[in-house]
Amino acid sequence: MRTTILLVDDHPVFREGLRALIDKSGTSQVIAEAGNGLDAVRLAGELKPDLVIMDLTMPIMNGIDATREITNSHPEIKVLVLSMESDRFFVVESLKAGAMGYLLKDAAFAELADAIDTVVNGETYLPRKVSTLVVKEFLQCIPEDIAPVYQSLTPREREILQLIADGKCIKEIASLLDVSNKTVENQRHAVMQKLQLFSVAELTKFAVRHGLSSLTK
To answer: What does pTM read for this prediction?
Structure first.
């Protein structure tokens, strides 16, 4: 069965050419077109396509708002953004609005076909150039002045934390590190104070979460 598609773009010539390529593919079929976001929301509700290919800069209602309206009202309908906008803002806001893919209009049709298949199957599609923008946005949201709390631990304290998380007792740790039981106890206490965690279970969860243990979550 062909994937049904609602094609949304305010340029009729572009829609005509893209529709011809999609219909010719044999795996997808354009069942309707819209030239603005408002019509896109209405047609999506009426026709329930498998996928909406959405432009962003359009009259009456932009593609981001239209995407949000469609995905909120009809979560089963997937949205793939196809736009000339390569700015990080448009990418991030589209994904926040519910789009499951973002492709630039300079992409080859083979990549668009791949993106269609990926999104229809419930997976996110982001080409390398776009995914780089998303990563940069994510990194900018992390305060630079806040270091991960585990970085306050010394190398030996991290080692002891990992051994504790791996299930080693005080005596076993002391033997492995060739130190006294008292030394291990003191260092374990220091770890607990720094992390404000006061049980083996809490230490284990912390170690796993921060990649300091060979155990899995």
So the answer is: 0.64
